[in-house]
């Protein structure tokens, strides 16, 4: 019986009896600060030998799935030994927001939205730009997550891996960009 039903559905589809669903645009992100696959110096850390602007990148996203209650963003160095290096994790970005301007972390724009930022691996809350050892090039993954809830168990001062756990538990979709740092002398 199931075999017959499958053939009937296929026949109906081939005759145009059922209209195909329109595909929605996939969830995607972009950043003018990551042009050409390399971090802009404004996003690099400004401490301990690094002379960047330490500004969180501008980022925009589109195609969030139905049921999205809010967004989260992370920036993680995947080439640091061990578990990598957390540069940024932020949650509770409202579902109505589709972009952040550069320096949203330090400017207070995220706080004004009610977003919560994790403690990065520099031991500071908020964004801490890349600063790899001299002469090395690392890869950084910027990810925007569409979340099914904004009721996450997070608080300022909590480390980024804790935020990651909560984000992954609530993620409906995610999109990433991978960039490298400019070579440092």
Automatic annotation (TrEMBL):
SUPFAM superfamilies: PEBP-like. The keyword Amino-acid biosynthesis does not apply. One of its GO terms (molecular function) is protein kinase inhibitor activity. Keywords: Protein kinase inhibitor, Signal. Coiled coil: none annotated. Residues 1-23 form the signal peptide. The keyword Plastid does not apply. It comes from the Bacteria. NCBIfam families: YbhB/YbcL family Raf kinase inhibitor-like protein. This is YbhB/YbcL family Raf kinase inhibitor-like protein. It comes from Robbsia betulipollinis. The lineage of its organism: Bacteria, Pseudomonadati, Pseudomonadota, Betaproteobacteria, Burkholderiales.
